[in-house]
């Protein structure tokens, strides 16, 4: 799994890491009970502090995406469909927000956008 850190982002690095794992879990790239990289190895690979990586993993665990086994490491939690749905919804909202801003810049009306969305929906 490749995690890209954006140093120009206003989002903290631990948050970017956690979001990358959430996306990967939601899309099925990480399976239930699959081991995550160790905190130290991930920190080394990303060239960041172990503390930052630890915080990302703590957030993921607190939100139910992963669990920790003492002496073994961190693992992906069994698939929680509600968490996966929520993550997908969040990603879709982000894309729609960008599309809405672009539509406004292009001078499109809300009705034109709705029509375009309905056309895309029907194509699927």
UniProtKB/TrEMBL annotation:
UniProt feature coiled coil, ranges: none
GO molecular function terms listed in the Swiss-Prot or TrEMBL record: DNA binding; DNA-binding transcription factor activity
Pfam families tied to this protein: GntR (PF00392)
Highest taxon above the source species: Bacteria
Domain HTH gntR-type: 11-79
Keywords tagged on the record: DNA-binding, Transcription, Transcription regulation
InterPro entries: Tscrpt_reg_HTH_GntR, WH-like_DNA-bd_sf, WH_DNA-bd_sf
CDD domains according to UniProt: WHTH_GntR
Protein's recorded name: GntR family transcriptional regulator
């Amino acid at each position: 799994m490749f995690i890209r850190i954006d140093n120009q982002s206003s989002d903290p690095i631990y948050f970017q890491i956690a979001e990358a794992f959430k996306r990967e879990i939601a899309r099925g790239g990480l399976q239930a009970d699959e081991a995550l990289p160790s905190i130290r190895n991930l920190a080394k690979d990303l060239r960041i502090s172990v503390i930052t990586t630890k915080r990302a993993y703590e957030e993921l665990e607190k939100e139910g995406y992963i669990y920790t086994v003492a002496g073994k490491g961190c693992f992906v939690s069994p698939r929680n469909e509600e968490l996966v749905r929520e993550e997908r919804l969040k990603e879709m909202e982000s894309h729609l927000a960008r599309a809405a801003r672009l539509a406004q810049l292009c001078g499109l009306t809300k009705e034109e956008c709705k029509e375009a969305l309905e056309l895309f929906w029907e194509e699927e």
